[in-house]
Amino acid sequence: MIEKEAQELLKKYRLGTLTDQERALLESWYIQYARSNSNIDISQEELQEDLDNIYNALPIHKKAVRNLFAPRSIRFSLYAASVVLFMIAGMLFLKNKQRHVPKLASAYQTTIAPGKSSAVLTLADNRKIVLDNNFSGAIAHENGITVSKTTAGLLRYTVNEKQASNDATVAYNTISTPVGGEYQVVLADGTEVWLNALSSIRFPTSFKGSERKVEITGEAYFEVAKNAQMPFRVVSGYQVVEVLGTHFNISAYPDESAVATTLLEGSVKVAMNDGQVKVLKPGQQALILKKNNSFTVKDVDAEDAVAWKNGYFQFADDDLKSIMNQLSRWYNVEIVYQHANLDQKFGGTISRSKNLSQVLRILELTGNVRFRVEGRRVTVMP
Q: Any idea what DSSP says for residue 167?
């Protein structure tokens, strides 16, 4: 099968316009390729998924696939300093000139499901409420505030103005997500917050005074309700982010080398603890490197920073350690490195709804890394 013919068939496969003869040709080509280069028997389900992966990895379709992304779809193009993966004419080509087809992992002994909507709410009196999807409705009343939840994993704070105005006490709540959890909350002022895995937010149940201040750990995305008279401030260890009303993402995990604040809409002021201040425009990211406290601003694709909120991993020239940290938090697994090159870079997108084995299998297609899964331990090998 020549390159042009292979590309045309892959296009028609994705569009669902293959004839029976063309489908048979494409599938027989792929099955022949896969079975001749690995020890795996390809099931029909695996075949469908792998054909999707192959098509989506074609660099010429990168933009189109990106625009059509939806939950449970998958697209993955490995590029930049590491590799570009695409399959045409029955061959696997790598940017770094590797010509040997990688042997895929045969099977993983443990099926590890992706994370889900899960969190713990700590009330002002230190009572803890597990937020799962088994119930909905009002779950707490504090100082004129009603806290309610939906079965879809959303917590909402509603102010009873009359009761709240008669109580000058400011009560604080904390929402914490575990490893493998995420959650969404609507604060009393209407600000919406999405928490990624292993993250937390501490906030007043109602905002009073001259500012709206919250504290976070881990990663959170904010859509801040506008209020020019009461600035919204987010404290995240190394910095304070101040806004009036905007959309932005903060990643401040303690095990990562940097704190990143990415602006999608509006304007934010990022102030380091040492007094340095940067003002961001949409499409910019403030990056604080912890090892030397360097503080820089760069232009980025802001949508990449909130990929997790939209249901997928986005790797943009990320090193292997950073990628494995993300997988560890979402799938609740321990990562062990065995002579792996942690500096190699990967780029691409994978749905967070996939089982861990499916994600690892895609990474292994680069030929640059292998994995061994034992229980909830993942060993990373060259």
A: -
Give 83: exposed, middle or buried? Use CB within 10 Å, 0-12, 13-18, 19+.
buried
Which residue, among 219, 230, 163, 218, has the nearest Cα to 191 in the 3D structure? 230
User: 240-258: per-residue pLDDT in tens?
Assistant: 999 988 999 999 999 899 9
Q: Count the Cβ atoms, other than its own, within 10 Å of residue 305.
A: 23
**Neighbour-count burial of 62, counting CB atoms closer than 10 A to its CB (0-12 exposed, 13-18 middle, 19+ buried):** middle
At 93-144, the pLDDT tens digits run 222 333 344 444 444 567 899 999 999 999 999 999 999 767 789 999 887 8
Distance CA 371, CA 166 (A): 59
Domain boundary residue among 305, 339, 361? 305
Torsion angles phi and psi, residue 329, rounded to 5: -70, -35
Q: Give the gyration radius of the chain's Cα atoms.
A: 23
**Integer Cα distance of 325 and 339 in angstroms:** 17
Which one of 305, 333, 349 terminates a domain? 305
Q: Would you say how long the chain is, in residues?
A: 382
**Predicted TM-score of the model (pTM):** 0.74
The number of distinct structural domains making up the chain is: 2
